[in-house]
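Researcher: Let's do a round of design. I'm pasting the structure tokens now; please hold your answer until I've finished.
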């Protein structure tokens, strides 16, 4: 089985503020959604009809990982921390 690696900023990075790290993923990108869920991100909702591309309209899934959940993600072997 091929495992994709997820690159996310360190919580100590200036790119990450507050108590959470949010990502937005197009709803048809099931591989990315699965990868984020494997490291602890939780779906918070869907922004319907967010982007129009040609005749298609795409939805966006909003996911988050809380600062207190970060240690579990850091122990994962599929996370590359950047920043």
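Researcher: That's everything. Go ahead.
Model: Designed sequence:
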């Amino acid at each position: 089985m091929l495992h994709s690696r997820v690159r996310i900023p360190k919580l100590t990075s200036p790119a990450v503020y507050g108590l959470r790290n949010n990502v937005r993923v197009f709803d048809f990108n099931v591989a990315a959604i699965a990868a984020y869920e494997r490291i602890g991100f939780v779906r918070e909702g869907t922004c319907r009809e967010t982007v129009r591309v040609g005749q298609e309209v795409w939805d966006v899934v909003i996911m988050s990982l809380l600062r207190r959940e970060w240690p579990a993600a850091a122990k994962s072997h599929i996370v590359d921390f950047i920043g």
